Amino acid sequence: MTADHISVSPRRRAARATAAVLALVAAGAGAVAFLAPHDGGRAGEGTADRLPPATAEVLRQTLEDSRSVDAQLGFGTERTVVGRLPGTLTRLPEPGVEITRGKALYAVDNGPVVVLYGSLPAYRALAKGAEGPDVRQLEENLRALGYTGFTSDEEYTEGTAKAVRRWQADLGLKKTGTVELGRVVFTPGSVRVAGLEAEPGGQTGPGQRVLSYTGTAKAVTAELDTSDRRLAKKGRPVDVTLPDGAVARGTVTEVSTVSTPAEGQKKAETKIKVVVGFTDARAVAAVRAYDEAGVHVVFTADTRENVLTVPVSALLVLAEGGFGVELVEGATSRYVPVTTGLFAGGRVEISGRGISRGAQVGVPK
């Protein structure tokens, strides 16, 4: 069907417009407000009965689907350490202290609970005969600390047990050759103590909160509405504006969903939590001057350069399916089908026969 024979049924258009809006919003259009129902031409005709109440110019521009949000510069996500060893807390670190692999995080009955690196949490005691990825994780840490005499694999051999006994002797522990559950805390890397949830002299045991920690590198934490989920993709670059106005380039490192239950008059809420890290040397240097501070983060999901755009409200849903616009040409107008692209900032990228820069399209008043 040609552009001269496009029909726009007012009743069908209005019904389809509602469904189209919902679909576009669900797909992440974000900026879509509505698709304007409009008194179109009679079925089978491409011209309108009367001119629209207002027009807008077709622009050629760069279109960005982006959001700027307030965020907090700190050290990223806080994680909680819970006790596993029963006993008395005899030593706790000061908040802000950084602890690396092989060092004591805290002490129970004057025996250290040690930081080792790994993604798999400790969930059992490890002794000769044990097999699994947690064994490999332990052995890789022992080797990194200078203990040898075993193969870094998934088997806890006599060689592993001998290395563990040497490690235990250096820590002032009994040389059992078995790593009891709770003696080590596996973390992604070096940690910074964020806060204490217990006191020296207090009792600890399975499930008891001891302290919280973060990573040691500066990071930004932001929250997005669930409708903006498309903006939060791991590995995506973002711009962070610091308090002095400088802009640091960061990268999304963590994305998670955080739900807050209803409380009193406050309704339940779900947000997308995003952590942004810095690897570029200039960005790292720029954020080093701040401990914790409010910043602004610009998330960009997509960019279209040098494209034709119109206000979203200029779109019509054609009775035959798809989208169109009312192209105004002097004292007459006609309906032409268009292909839509990016929706952003209240505008939409379009292309189609007869659509060019400077053309006028109908819009609501």
Provide a descriptive summary of the structure in words.
The protein is mainly β and 365 residues long. Helices cover 14% and strands 40% of the residues. The chain has four helices and 21 strands. It has helices at residues 10-26, 133-144, 158-171, 281-288; strands spanning 54-57, 59-74, 79-82, 87-91, 98-99, 104-108, 111-117, 184-187, 191-196, 203-204, 209-215, 219-225, 237-241, 247-260, 269-277, 293-311, 316-317, 323-329, 332-344, 347-351, 360-363. A six-stranded antiparallel β-barrel has the order 2-12-15-14-13-16. A hairpin with a 2-residue loop joins β19 (332-344) and β20 (347-351). The longest helix is centred in the N-terminal third of the chain and has 17 residues, at 10-26. The chain is elongated. It starts with 9 loop residues before the first helix and ends with a strand. Residues 1-23 and 25-45 have low confidence and may be disordered.
| Count of alpha and pi helical runs | 4
Main sheet specs: 6 strands, antiparallel, barrel
**What would you report as the Rg, rounded to the nearest angstrom?**
30 Å
Q: Uncertain runs with pLDDT below 50, 5 residues or more?
A: 1-23, 25-45
Overall morphology: elongated
What class, by secondary structure content?
A: mainly beta
